[in-house]
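re the bet — no i am not wrong, look at it urself. input seq straight from the record:
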Amino acid sequence: MSKVVDVVVDPILDLGEKIWDETVGVLLDKLDPDLPQEDMATLAKGLQKGIDQPRRITFGRDRVGGVIAHQATVERDEKKWVQLIVLINGAPIDALEDIYIANKLLSDYPADSYNYSLSDGRHTTANSMAVSKMAGWTSKHVGFGQAHVFIELENNREVFPDGISDCEFLIRGIRVWDPRDGLQDPEDESTWTWSQNAVLCALHYVRFYGAHQVPMHTIPLNWWIAAANVADEDTEYTDTDGNTATEPRYTCNGTFQFTSRPSEVLSQLERTFAGKIFRQMGQWFVRVGAWYGNPTYTIGPADVMGNVKIKWHADLRDRANTVRAQFVDPDQHYERTDAPPVVAEGYIAKDNQPLETSVSLPFVRSVTTAQRLAKIHLEQTRLGTIELPLRHTALRAAVGRTIYVDLPVNTSVKKYTVLLIVNLD
């Protein structure tokens, strides 16, 4: 049984290898915090022109558009063709599963109306089909580390009545390191595997895509392994036919781009596992939405060095008794969708009014997961807080740990709570 708490383009000709690698390969690696935030639920949709677009990275499975790096037209076999080189991920991907034109599988169109070839990012030579068929694309156009597709489509409105601009690719994104697998080397990506585990995806982001890369010695692996195990637990739900089914508890599927603020991306990744990633004493820790057992440490009067502030319940303006979760639904062409709201009738009666809030989950692709996370979020909005300055003897009350608090407040009380922030002078 789970330990988780039940909380109820314009043509770019003669694009040489140096230009590709120095322009596309490291494009906007430096983050610009003044840019407005993108809608991460929809930023990957559609085709965009120009190699000055920021790189995108996909975790798990997602349906994405891409950036047109080169385009050409050609007449062959009495047909006119449009040819494109489309960058679909700024790092190697695990697989290209399907291609869609106007929300229709490419394989549903006539077989002689299209052709394509994938360079998955681990390639070491230029795409051979593009070199042989596409004007201006040569053996020097390798695109090291960049997943891209050469695709040619018949320029015929009778074949593609809705045009070809609405072209999207269903991909399994980057591979990530799993510290639970002894055969995987954290420094050798050829040993890594593709995973939708929300904790492993977050670990990968922390290591490589935050404001700074994080060295291995600052990652306490026992914390991350425990959290990854919780994320992989099967949780039951009732499907649309009324049958009991299961799915992994916490998964991550979605795309971010390099101009997104690291703090915003990290916050969205944390929401996929209802937890928190935090840094303390130079170490990066993680806690997921789970019950980790009874506390083993108690804060008493001797640990406190100042005034204690206790708020037993959240203020009314901060509480919620109804939560609407927005997620990306694969059954609706990977468009942003509202999950059925989570409504706590008991809390509505207690609050004497409906208090509604919403939560955005751009890395969630399951309606049942979205509702489960919304339910946890609802409970979190109602939690009380305690603020207390502690002596250095209380360093064991680290951020993220569950503790007992035993302090005299009129009469002696003994409660435990999750310590969110501790400031030690």
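see?? The two ends are 41 Å apart (CA to CA). told u. also DSSP finds seven helices and 28 strands in the chain. so pay up
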